[in-house]
Task: structure prediction
Amino acid sequence: MTMLNVEGLCKTFVLHNQQGARLPVLNQVSLQVNAGECVVLHGHSGSGKSTLLRTLYGNYLPDSGSINVNHHGEQIDLVTASARQILALRRDTLGWVSQFLRVIPRISALEVVMQPLLERGEARDVCEDKARELLARLNVPQRLWSLAPATFSGGEQQRVNIARGFIARSPVLLLDEPTASLDNKNCAAVVALIEEARSRGAAIVGIFHDREVRERVANRLHIMNPLVAETEA
Ligand SMILES: Nc1ncnc2c1ncn2[C@@H]1O[C@H](COP(=O)(O)OP(=O)(O)OP(=O)(O)O)[C@@H](O)[C@H]1O
Result:
């Protein structure tokens, strides 16, 4: 079953504060991801991997093209969707793990992790149990769970972020380098979460710079177009 169907996506950044310089980044990107499949975006630095991933989450509006997401069996085009539809998509269908945790003062790690599941209306004790299980699997020390992650180390914050991204078991998962800068043990824990998500039928798109991780999780690579960025006034 196709969960994500991207067709003819184009995106040019226009730098208004730099004489309107134009930076074409995505040129006619098409991509299909089925349930249970992990597609890894592959290309040199600056080839537009993060831009594509952010566009697939609706953070950037493309200049043209469509991004159809299977949302409860209905196709919704993220490019033309209303704000309300985008929020519903993100709540129920589209999960996202960014590289960095957005830290909110005074909100504990446990709360941060539980949030996506609470938003779906799950009972609080169920959410809390799942959050505890994930934090333990990701080796976040228990003494930190009730503290706000602002003072956590980079790796600890990253693992809180990963737990938050996986707790809702989203049907479509977008992963922006979730294993970057993790040690071997934690990297293996994240790879195991990705493999489990794939087996339960999640459609995954990710960026993984580590070759070993990439080879382990990828069903196939999506090679970014070697688009030579032209800057013109
Ligand atoms: N918000 C933005 N505004 C303007 N230009 C941007 C923006 N985001 C990215 N770019 C430009 O788009 C190009 C692609 O960047 P992107 O971060 O998508 O590449 P990448 O393939 O993810 O690179 P890396 O592997 O180094 O993380 C770069 O030339 C970058 O300067």
